Fold this sequence. Notes:
Layout: H1 2-11, H2 16-20, H3 23-48, E1 50-53, H4 61-67, H5 105-115, H6 137-143, H7 148-152, E2 164-167, H8 174-177, H9 194-204, H10 218-221
Antiparallel strand pairs: 1-2
The protein binds heme C (5 copies).
Residues 129, 133-136, 139-140, 143-144, 146, 150-151, 188, 192, 196-197, 200-201, 204, 206-207, 209-210, 220-221 line the site of one heme C.
Amino acid sequence: MENPKAKHAASGSGQSEKKDGAGGPIILFFILGLLCSLVVGWIFVPESFYYTEEQPIDFSHAVHNELVDNGCQSCHFFRADGSYSGAPRLAQCIECHQEANSDDPDEIRFVEEFVKKGREVPWLVYSRQPACVFFSHAAHVKMGNIDCVTCHGHIGESDSLRPYQGNRISGYSRDIWGTHPLGIKRNPWDRMKMDDCAECHVEAGVSSGSVQTQRNGCLVCHH
Ligand code: HEC
Ligand code: HEC
Ligand code: HEC
Ligand code: HEC
Ligand code: HEC
């Protein structure tokens, strides 16, 4: 039963096609081929644009939120001049980590390789924007009253720091484009491209100068 069909398919490209309607298998092959290229084009090719790197030390927000007195601000705070401290420096850790408190291998490594040598931890910043972008936490957190979760997701409650992914070509963090292969966004923190900043600005009615189409609007977010 199978042999005649196989023959048709093999010789089906020429005249026999018209004779007996071998178009069926051809369409099937076409659809299979299309599906394969879509999978390659949408999933494997985009995946291959990114490299993955572990954070230098794993860190549990859940453990530390219980231990500190001042919540998130113990480690992420506004300086007197209104600028944002961002990723914590050793100074935020040292009072508790002169010696290891536990036998957790990450804590031991942190104390031995960083605290005792006075070296800052080279944290990888998931939300890092290109250098040409101006972003101010004061405008958003203090004036706009926007919650950290809206832009960053639930990192602040997590047990572990996920690996960082960077784009091999641009060098930018994957969090800007987002992890969905088609760029689909389900949560506000899934993506932070130029259009995502602008979308919220339009919704929130941020001063008209922020709208990209306005004259000089670009300079609101670009140096
Ligand atoms: C208020 C005190 C305190 C501060 C401030 C603090 N830690 Fe800790 N940290 C602890 C204690 C206590 C433990 C042990 C918890 C346990 O029993 O497992 C710990 C555990 C850890 C661990 C192992 C568990 C984990 O989180 O994966 C790491 C790594 C660590 N700390 C890094 C840091 C870094 C980096 C900073 C500064 C950004 C910091 N800690 C600031 C008290 C503190
Ligand atoms: C004991 C210090 C400590 C406390 C308290 C703390 N964090 Fe962190 N946080 C860290 C460290 C260390 C990192 C890793 C640096 C990084 O990823 O940039 C981090 C990273 C983050 C990041 C990722 C930034 C990025 O894009 O890479 C967010 C968001 C964040 N913290 C939010 C919070 C929130 C919200 C809270 C309070 C609920 C909080 N943190 C409390 C130490 C702390
Ligand atoms: C409106 C969106 C938004 C909100 C709200 C927001 N962030 Fe961010 N955050 C960003 C962006 C964008 C960056 C990257 C800035 C850059 O690279 O110039 C960032 C960077 C950071 C970093 C890394 C900074 C560094 O350079 O080391 C930390 C840590 C952080 N945010 C924590 C927080 C915390 C904690 C809150 C809540 C108090 C918060 N953010 C609220 C958008 C936001
Ligand atoms: C979730 C909503 C939201 C997102 C996302 C957001 N913004 Fe904003 N932004 C605001 C609001 C609200 C204000 C006005 C705060 C105020 O002054 O009351 C603001 C103000 C600003 C300002 C101050 C200038 C002005 O016109 O008032 C700059 C610059 C800015 N945003 C840049 C950015 C950039 C860059 C991004 C993306 C990386 C971004 N924002 C993402 C809501 C957002
Ligand atoms: C609301 C803030 C905002 C405004 C307004 C804005 N941009 Fe952007 N722009 C961004 C952010 C954030 C990025 C980085 C993320 C991305 O590539 O989407 C970016 C990236 C870019 C890039 C790519 C730079 C690179 O290194 O990859 C160009 C070019 C650019 N913007 C041009 C413009 C022009 C031209 C305007 C005015 C019509 C404008 N932008 C207005 C936020 C803004």
